[in-house]
Amino acid sequence: MPAVRRYAVFGHPIAHSLSPRLHALFAEQTGVALEYGAIDAAPDEFTSVVRAFFMHGGRGANVTLPHKAAAFALADVHTLTAQRLGVANVLTALPGGRIEAESNDGAGMLADMRGRFGFDPREHEVLLLGAGGAARASGFALLDAGARRLTIANRTPARAQALATALSEPERVNTAAWDALDRCAAFDLIINATSAGVQHAALALPRSLVQTRTFAYDLSYGPAARPFVEWAQAAGCATASDGLGMLVETAAASFERWHGVRPDVDAAFKAIRAGTRP
Ligand code: NDP
């Protein structure tokens, strides 16, 4: 009998992760036999724990906070997207014992916007709140997708400026002061890529950012997205969503990368949404 293929998600903490449930759902849908664990690795042991996992037969790993940069650093091969971002959320065993690093957060966000909401960022004015790792992945993805203009606002202005510089498209990217957002015109798409909601902190955003067709999208999901989603609804956005669909899309993309079969994303989303509402 062939050995069961081993996969895992690594993070710190990790108990809250929906990743094992998603991969179990995908495995059930597709008939793929696998074992998928959740491994809590502190930052100082992350690299050795991941290396040991792959040396002992691990075939693939998803990586979440705070290890995405360390995941990139330990890999032998990097996809073009991972190279551009300098972080990875998917590690895959390659022949010869090498490990490949990929980042699919940006692609997952776009797939969710397009697939679940029929929203294409092409030619749209976008406000990106935050300048951390997720904002960086979103920024590159949105420019690749043809956003007309990307305005970055971050609590720490130097990080907004650093992200704008890294995106290397001065004609399409600018920054706005975090405490003067009321001076901006309204946007077509507002992305909350801050971790404020996870820390139970509300953002003080002016209603003037919104017009009737504005799509508001929070990358965090479940209750962490509630303050932003409620603000967006009250401000009159056409659509407001959390990032649960993005999470499902990124999990599905790693599943497909590892097993060569596309799971039923909509069915998995419905199953997981039932227990995870903003
Ligand atoms: P980082 O720690 O890299 O960045 C956090 C960002 O949030 C920074 O810009 C920080 O600003 C800002 N921030 C934190 N607290 C506040 C606050 N109280 N008020 C205003 N701004 C604040 O985190 P990530 O970029 O990795 O993650 C951001 C969010 O995206 C998280 O909620 C995460 O769960 C979510 N995410 C969702 C994914 C999905 O699949 N749906 C995938 C990846 C991330 P400053 O620079 O000033 O500190």
Short description:
The chain is of the alpha/beta class and 278 residues long. It is 38% helix and 22% strand. The strands form 2 sheets. A 6-stranded mixed sheet has the order 2-1-3-5-6-4, with helices on both faces. Strands 9-8-7-10-11-12 form a 6-stranded parallel sheet, with helices on both faces.
Draw up the topology in text.
Layout: E1 5-11, H1 19-30, E2 34-40, H2 46-55, E3 58-63, H3 68-74, E4 77-78, H4 80-85, E5 90-93, E6 99-102, H5 105-117, E7 125-129, H6 133-144, E8 149-153, H7 157-167, E9 173-175, E10 187-192, E11 210-218, H8 226-235, E12 239-241, H9 244-259, H10 265-273
Parallel strand pairs: 1-2, 1-3, 4-6, 7-8, 7-10, 8-9, 10-11, 11-12
Antiparallel strand pairs: 3-5, 5-6
The structure holds NADPH dihydro-nicotinamide-adenine-dinucleotide phosphate (NDP).
Give a structural overview.
- This protein is of the alpha/beta class and about 280 residues long.
- The chain folds into two domains: about 5-105 and about 245-275, Rossmann fold (3-Layer(aba) Sandwich), CATH 3.40.50; about 105-240, NAD(P)-binding Rossmann-like Domain (Rossmann fold, 3-Layer(aba) Sandwich).
- The protein is built from ten helices and twelve strands.
- The radius of gyration is 19 Å and the shape is globular.
- NADPH dihydro-nicotinamide-adenine-dinucleotide phosphate binds near residues 105, 133, 196 and 250.
